[in-house]
């Protein structure tokens, strides 16, 4: 199989996964993941362009980004599993500008969402107490599965990026060594005899 076709298919799968995650992060107003997903989509498009247009430098940028992307998703996993003093109930992923949490916390598989209006009518913000029951899977595990899948795609993308860069580099080296010297000899060799043949004609006139 052509390595560029494999790399292109991998980039498209990575882009679709990032778009899917971006949609649910938008629904949950998770601003930090939204920003990270946006950057990831841009870099994936850059890597896709580099694969199609044979630009190894763009693919190298994508490979470097995959390492950062893995680091970010490891942090998200630790955040939802509350590792290292992190709390999934904090507003860290919303930059502390809203009280929203993961969209899956209220809309996960089997979840029943009920809004209980506040007893006091003096509430200015109009918020109601929301209770969620019957969830088959807790939302933090859904987020962990999302991040784990992103890590898997990033690792596969890194391996293919390194492979494609090595293939492009070998092709460029072989072209410079074989085509470069051959084209030089073929193109320049006829010039000297033609010059010698034309010189007596010039003198005779």
Strand content: under 5%
Would you tell me the structural class of the helices and strands?
mainly alpha
Q: Tell me roughly what share of residues is in helical segments.
A: 55-70%
Instruction: Please write the string of helix (H) and strand (E) elements.
Output: HHHHEEHH
What is the tally of helical segments?
6
Report the major sheet. 2 strands, antiparallel
**How far do the termini sit from each other?**
63 Å
Question: How would you describe the shape?
Answer: elongated
Mean pLDDT across residues = 80
Q: If you compute it from the alpha carbons, what radius of gyration comes out, rounded to the nearest whole angstrom?
A: 29 Å
SS elements, strand count: 2
**Which spans of ≥5 residues are poorly predicted at pLDDT below 50?**
177-205
How are the strands of the biggest sheet laid out side by side?
1-2
Task: Provide a descriptive summary of the structure in words.
The chain is mainly α and 205 residues long. It has helices spanning 3-27, 31-52, 56-80, 104-107, 139-188, 191-204; strands spanning 112-116, 129-133. The protein is built from six helices and two strands. The radius of gyration is 29 Å and the shape is elongated. The chain starts with a helix and ends with a helix.
